[in-house]
Design a protein that fits this description.
- The protein is an alpha+beta fold.
- It has 2 helices and 4 strands; from the N terminus they run H-H-E-E-E-E.
- It has a 4-stranded antiparallel sheet, with helices on one face.
- The longest helix is centred in the N-terminal third of the chain and has 25 residues.
- The protein starts with a helix and ends in a 14-residue tail after the last strand.
């Protein structure tokens, strides 16, 4: 009986360690969804895009900086990625796969 208890406790500790490492590298899924929804709201209310203008939006986590970002692909530019992040409570375009894209804006710092 003691051996079974010990095995269960060791398994739980190992699971907690592996789970912590996974979350540390990949971020929290609910935070990724939250940032994706916030960026969608920003793009449709502040930047006045229609939801149909956006082909795909995905929340991301950078383990190097600890920041959550959202990757956006617009319907009219399916081969260009735009990355938005929240800085001091405001959204900005943090990166793109092509600086000649149609959806570049004044918030982008090169």
């Amino acid at each position: 009986m003691k051996r079974t208890k010990r095995l269960i406790m060791d398994s739980l500790v190992l699971l907690a360690i592996v789970g912590g490492i996974y979350i540390g590298l990949n971020g929290l899924p609910q935070k990724k969804n939250e940032i994706a929804n916030e960026v969608l709201t920003y793009l449709t209310t502040d930047r006045l895009f229609r939801k149909g203008d956006i082909k795909e939006i995905e929340g991301l986590y950078s383990f190097k900086s600890g920041d959550y970002q959202a990757n956006v692909i617009y319907a009219d530019e399916p081969n260009i990625n735009y990355t938005y992040e929240k800085v001091k409570g405001r959204f900005k375009l943090a990166g793109t796969s092509d600086v000649r894209g149609k959806h570049m804006d004044e918030t982008f710092d090169q």
